[in-house]
Structures are given as structure tokens and as C-alpha cells.
Amino acid sequence: MTRTVPVESASAFIDQKIKELGGWRGKTLAKVRGILHEADPEILEEWKWMGTPVWSHGGIVCTGETYKKVVKMTFAKGAALKDPSGLFNSSLEGKVRRAIDIHEGDKVDEAALKVLIRAAVALNLKGKSKPKPRRATGKRAD
Fold it and tell me: What pTM was estimated for this model as a whole?
């Protein structure tokens, strides 16, 4: 069962996770988080699946998982995204998700990552219509 915490709490949990990780993994997760917010200032932070940072806008954009030797950004609909810069380097056989594994010492291509994030948001929002304006009732004054 997925349990989502309030946005303010999720941000605090992510802050705490970054602090607890420390070292290169904490710095990398913090950097990725900053890039996500620069790419899409409306992105929401969530905390799901017993401790996974999740960034969403119109649906999940990506998760930020941390392992001993890698910080992994898993894009929920990554297989549907164009990746001209070749950032995806993990989960390439999946039919839906794609991931970017960032190892210690790797340099993140911020510009290319922002393009990918924006494309993921656009894909999430595609087909989701904004509420239609309500039609005025009554007669027009001429």
C-alpha cells in the first residue's frame, strides 16, 4: 500500500535523507533535487514506498533512490521519452521506466537533464485538459 505524506513533510523527509546520507550520495541527491526544481518550479515533492523521494507534476516524473554505489533517478514514463543526450543508462530493457544511475565522481549534464525533466512533465500533462471556463448564464445586454 502506498502512503503519501503531506508535501511539507515530504520535503522535510528529503532534507533529512540528504543530511543522513552525507558524502557524495547526499550531495548528488541534493544536486538532482535542485535541478528538478530549476527545470520545473511547480514540481511537487513526495515521500512514498517507505522512504523514497518522488517528484511529481501531473503524475510521477521520477524517483530519487540511493544505493551504496549509485544514486538512481527512475523516470516513471522514461521509455516514452526521447533521450538525445543518452542520459538513460539503466533499466533500458523496461517497457515503461528508464533510469539514470549516477556514480561517485560522475558529472551530471544539467542542461540535458532539465530537458528530460521538462519532457517528462509535458508527457504527464499531455491530454490532461484544464478546467473549461464556465459559460455565463442569462441574457447579454446589447
Answer: 0.83
Handedness of CA 75, 77, 81, 86 (dihedral sign): positive
C-alpha to C-alpha distance for 75 and 61, rounded to whole angstroms:
6
Check whether 1 has a pLDDT greater than 50.
no
Which carries the bigger pLDDT value, residue 51 or residue 128?
51
Alpha helices in the chain (DSSP H): 7-21, 23-39, 110-125
Q: At what angle do helices 110-125 and 23-39 cross, to 10 degrees?
A: 50
Q: Which residues have a Cβ under 8 Å from the Cβ of 93 and sit 6 or more positions away? A: none
Confidence (pLDDT) at 51: 87
All three cell numbers of 7, joined, read 508535501
Q: Is 121 exposed, middle or buried (0-12, 13-18, 19+ CB in 10 A)?
A: buried
Q: Are 125 and 40 in contact (CB under 8 A)?
A: no
The residue to which cell 521520477 is assigned: 62
